[in-house]
Design a protein that fits this description.
The chain is an alpha/beta fold. The chain has two domains: about 280 residues, Aldehyde Dehydrogenase, Chain A, domain 1 (3-Layer(aba) Sandwich); about 180 residues, Aldehyde Dehydrogenase, Chain A, domain 2. The chain is built from 15 helices and 23 strands. Helix 4 runs parallel beside helix 5. The longest helix is centred in the N-terminal third of the chain and has 21 residues. The protein is globular. It starts with a strand and ends with a strand. Bound molecules: adenosine-5'-diphosphate (ADP). The site of adenosine-5'-diphosphate has 17 residues, from helix 7 and helix 8.
């Protein structure tokens, strides 16, 4: 019998209406545990509990909030190896990547522990003599937090920590595929002494628990990260009832490699950005836009590097790329590789499923060359270890191709030209720009987010997180 993990609703651990098994994508015979799935009534109870807890929590001492968040951060950091192992076991990213993600979650909690003490307002002169004007920030109320499977602890952390920091109550619904890290994080928050109702864990289906959160008028704001299709569907419902909304969705991020690039830097950026974490990152570089003169050398060097990478069980030391998260995602990757080839691209490396000692969803990293930006494989997010090389004649064409996308999360350029780097930073239509760095991999204390179809609403992370998680009040006083 595998262990049973419950939801946390209104201060109590509650069994689910049903349960679901959490399976290791590196070893399909490994069941991590049975996790509760709430029904709509349980989601309603969690929302009611959050609502009831809000008046007291919104007026709680900022020192208490700072202490709590800092303690959560310290516990996460102290348990990084064990939590990293759980994360890699359930999601499939390599153990160093899993531990790295856990460290980031710990740092995020500690950062917002500090921020709780630094929330300041403004006092300015009125245009009317004798009148005082104060601008302050207040908590929003109840925040619904809906997260995806690809960062099972960091994304929940970067939404939950600022929500609690600024005095909001939380109803947290993690992704169905990765309840383990979400449960472990929740237990840490609960054991740190969060008052009943302030934080609720409601594992369950998006169509049941997620939908209940989106449609409930008692939920003041929704922070969502996930697919474009779900994000758009959520937006239509949430905006209809005027909920505050923050969406982080897909990307089709370009990495431009100019002819003057350092080849080793270009290959490192491409391997890391396109294939690490099995390419399952919204900031992954899925479009490699490469100058004609460096193109052949780049493709040769990149293919050689891909050949040296070890694709295997995420927990085995030395694994460079873990498995794809599940069967559906693996099929989607294979479908897109086929679509790219039928559209005229060449599969220059990889793209085949692999057998390993344990049965898992293993896929050799795939490199499509001879791609154009018009192909579906260049326009739609694949969300796997699949990248397309698009050859361009010069910088101007590279910039135009980089910007010719429905998305705008992250964009990178590899160049030794200060002129082109500066121009790209200004002209790229993405939210985050990387010069001689991979498109994926960001700091936790600065804003994260994109433009166009990638994001909606205020930025996440760093001090900018307060734009979403607080509401501004302007008060006039005639003393
Ligand atoms: P991904 O599969 O990449 O994680 P999804 O958009 O399918 O992307 O899922 C992201 C999150 O949204 C998950 O927690 C999922 O359960 C949730 N979700 C899916 N469908 C809905 C829905 N109709 N309403 C609310 N949440 C949903």
């Amino acid at each position: 019998m595998s262990e049973m993990y419950r939801n946390f609703i209104g201060g109590d651990w509650i069994a689910g209406a049903e349960t679901a098994r959490n399976i290791n994508p590196s070893d399909l015979s490994d069941v991590i545990g049975e996790y509760a799935r709430a029904d709509k009534a349980q989601a309603d109870t969690a929302i009611a509990a959050a609502r009831a807890a809000f008046p007291a929590w919104s007026m709680s001492s900022v020192q208490d909030r700072a202490n709590l968040l800092d303690a959560v951060g310290n516990t996460i950091l102290a348990r990084k190896d064990e939590l990293g192992r759980l994360l890699s076991r359930e999601e499939g990213k390599t153990l160093p990547e899993g531990i790295g993600e856990v460290v980031r979650a710990g740092q995020i909690f500690k950062f917002f522990g500090g921020e709780a003490l630094r929330l300041a307002g403004e006092k300015i002169q009125s245009i009317r003599p004798g009148v005082e004007v104060e601008i302050t920030r207040e908590p929003l109320g109840v925040v619904g937090i809906i997260t995806p499977w690809n960062f099972p602890i960091a994304i929940p952390a970067w939404k939950i920590a600022p929500a609690l920091c600024y005095g909001n109550c939380v109803v947290f619904k993690p992704a169905e595929l990765v309840p383990g890290s979400a449960w472990a994080l929740s237990e840490i928050i609960i054991k740190a002494g969060i008052p009943a109702g302030v934080f609720n864990l409601v594992m369950g289906r998006g169509s049941v628990v997620g939908d209940a959160i989106i449609n409930d008028r008692r939920v003041d704001a929704i922070s969502f990260t996930g697919s474009v299709a779900t994000g758009r569907a959520i937006a239509a419902k949430a905006i209809a009832r005027m909920a505050k909304l923050q969406l982080e969705m897909g990307g089709k991020n370009p990495l431009v490699v100019l002819d003057d690039a350092d080849l080793a830097v270009a290959v490192n950026c491409a391997v890391n950005g396109a294939f690490f974490s099995t390419g399952q990152r919204c900031t992954a570089s899925s479009r490699l836009i490469v100058g004609a003169n460096i193109h052949d050398r780049f493709v040769a060097a990149l293919s050689e590097r891909l050949g040296s990478l070890k694709v295997d069980d995420a927990l085995i030391p030395g694994t460079d790329i873990g498995p794809v998260v599940d069967e559906t995602q693996l099929k989607q990757n294979l479908d897109y590789i086929g679509i790219g080839q039928r559209e005229g691209a060449t599969l220059a490396y990889g793209g085949e499923t692999l057998k390993r000692a344990k049965q898992g969803h293993y896929l050799a990293p795939a490199l499509l060359t001879g791609a154009t930006n018009a192909m579906r494989s260049s326009r739609e997010e694949i969300f796997g270890p699949v990248a397309s090389v698009i050859k361009v004649k010069d910088y101007d064409e590279a910039l135009a191709v980089a910007n010719d996308t429905d998305f705008g999360l992250s964009a990178g350029i590899v160049t030794t030209s200060l002129k082109h780097a500066s121009h790209f930073k200004r002209q790229s239509q993405a939210g985050m720009i990387m010069v001689n760095l991979p498109t994926a991999g960001v700091d936790y204390h600065v804003p994260f987010g994109g433009r166009k179809g990638s994001s909606y609403g205020p930025r996440e992370q760093g001090r900018y997180a307060r734009e979403f998680f607080t509401v501004v009040k302007t008060a006039y006083t005639l003393p």
